[in-house]
Amino acid sequence: MTILMRIFLTIGAITLSIISILWMVGSLSVNYLYQGHIKDENGRPISGVEINFIFSSIPGSNRTITNNACGEFTLIAHSPYLKNVIAKKAGYEFKVEDVTYGQPIKIIGKSSRRIDD
User: Is 73 within 8 Å of 51 (Cβ atoms)?
Assistant: First the structure.
């Protein structure tokens, strides 16, 4: 076997090894947990709220979920770059109080319905 052939085979093997490593690293996914609760001003849970998570890093990574009967929600996402959280439910106005990764997201809802006498 000539030296040139050995060099060619060595370069080929190294290239395949690098491609394999990059493919394995690229296929690994990291998940980020976002969770919290939605309550009214008196601390009672508000259920059935649509929650929009807006991320700034990956196009198409925004997600929408609905919370449970206890007012709680959990989202597992592939991005750590949470830009905004928007809560929606007919008859309510919401204020997002805390969006710190690793801490529960607190959302307070206030009834926007008017009671006419």
Answer: yes
